[in-house]
Amino acid sequence: MIEVTEDSVRLDLWLWAARFYKTRAIAQKAITGGHVELNEQAVSKPARALKIGDRLRLTMHHQRLELQVLGLSAKRASAPVAQALYAETEASRQAREAVAELRRLQGRVGPQSRPEGRDRRVLRSLKEGG
């Protein structure tokens, strides 16, 4: 078992403390599911030691975040404290903002009116798979 020392902390614990995931269990699933890379290498074990200066790549909500670890914490704290634990790379920030701008420009296409009886039956059959 990896010990939490002053110069390293478990990856799942840090992701939870930095407020990327609501629970450690969700952070562990993301790590084992291949959504987290540490120093450009795939990570499959939540107990992997994380150190200051390490580079993380997270895939969350169909977006990739590239981070550099600036601080370590084994306790969850307020959002400003959590944001001080990492810095997002400039390339990652620009890519995220470009995707957000593209989504904003595309807009949301919704129905013009409430579906009528026949349309509701079609929607219900699509949702229920029948």
Written account of the structure:
This protein has 130 residues and is α+β, with helices and mostly antiparallel strands. Helix content is 38%, strand content 19%. The chain is built from five helices and seven strands. The chain has a five-stranded antiparallel β-sheet.
What does the largest sheet look like? 5 strands, antiparallel
Query: Could you give me the name of the CATH homologous superfamily?
Result: RNA-binding S4 domain
Number of strands: 7
Helix content: 25-40%
Tell me the structural class: alpha+beta
Return residue spans where pLDDT drops below 50 for at least 5 consecutive residues. none
Global outline: elongated
Tally of helical segments = 5
**Terminus-to-terminus distance:** 49 Å
> Could you state the oligomeric state of the chains shown?
single chain
The strand order across the widest sheet is 3-2-5-6-7
Element-level helix/strand string: EHHEEEEEHEHH
Tell me the domain tally. Answer: 1
**CATH topology value:** Structural Genomics Hypothetical 15.5 Kd Protein In mrcA-pckA Intergenic Region, Chain A
The CATH class turns out to be Alpha Beta
Radius of gyration: 20 Å
Task: Give the mean pLDDT.
Answer: 91
